[in-house]
Amino acid sequence: MAILVLFSTVSFTVEKHFCGDVLIDMAIFNAAEKCSSYIVDVQIINHCCKDTVDVIKGQDELNVKSLTDLDFDQQLFLTAFTYSYLNLFEGLPELVVPHKNYFPPNLIADIQVLNQVFII
Questions:
Q1: 39: buried, middle or exposed (CB in 10 Å: 19+, 13-18, 0-12)?
Q2: What is d(CA 12, CA 61) in angstroms, rounded to the nearest whole number?
Q3: Domain ranges of the chain
């Protein structure tokens, strides 16, 4: 949506340079090159060259609505929806870990391996 608004409000110009019916150069952000570097005959340059400039205007005015432009029912719905959505998520309570300070004893020998008892 933001890209659509950006491209609809941008305006720019397109410059085209023709020698006769042949398009010599087209530029969008800078000036178009003239045909003097392509054609050396001075008579042709003076009589048949023409420049065209196309201006593409973007949208100048955007309709920005505020909360006061809405009807009372729309304002009521919007505030109720916002309030219920923000209160939908509650924080988790702090969990109590009863064995937080318990450290298991050091294993001297692995009893399952000594007795050769394995769960299959």
A1: middle
A2: 16
A3: 1-85
Answer whether 55's CB lies under 8 Å from 10's CB: no
Ramachandran class of 116: left when φ > 0, alpha when ψ lies in -120 to 50, beta otherwise: left
Give bridge partners of residue 17 from the DSSP assignment. Answer: 25, 51
**18: which strand partners?**
23, 50
Q: How far apart are CA 35 and CA 40, in angstroms?
A: 9
Residues 40-78 have pLDDT tens digits of: 455 555 567 888 888 888 877 777 777 788 889 998 999
Can you give the pTM of this predicted structure?
Answer: 0.40
With CA atoms as reference, report the closest residue to 70 among 79, 83, 61, 62: 79
